[in-house]
Amino acid sequence: MSTFWDRVAWLYDLVERSNRAVNAAAAARVAGLVPKGARVLACAAGTGEFSLAAAERAETVLCTDLSLPMLDRARKKAKKRGLTNISFTQRDITALPDPDGSFDVVIAANILHL
User: Fold this and answer.
1) 54: helix, coil or strand?
2) Cβ atoms 31, 56 nearer than 8 A
3) Beta strands 60-65 and 86-90: pairing type?
């Protein structure tokens, strides 16, 4: 079943660029808060901007989203940037299977859309 986010994945980064300065500053801030060598879980990551920023400092990043087209775009961006410490998987943020303590940092940004 196709979701709204599946249908707009191709357009998502273009919309994000309309507010490029704010989004770049937010991604830089996220990266700055990630301790060197951290294990990071990025929930509802969309096309992965915060996940990719975190990967610059983290040991590992698990980039998750419910939308496979969003994850495909994030994966392509990571490959283009040469990031090898990031993996991608489809997950529902309301039903995460990881036990407590599995990650040092959890990112859940821009997830409330009313």
Assistant:
1) helix
2) yes
3) parallel
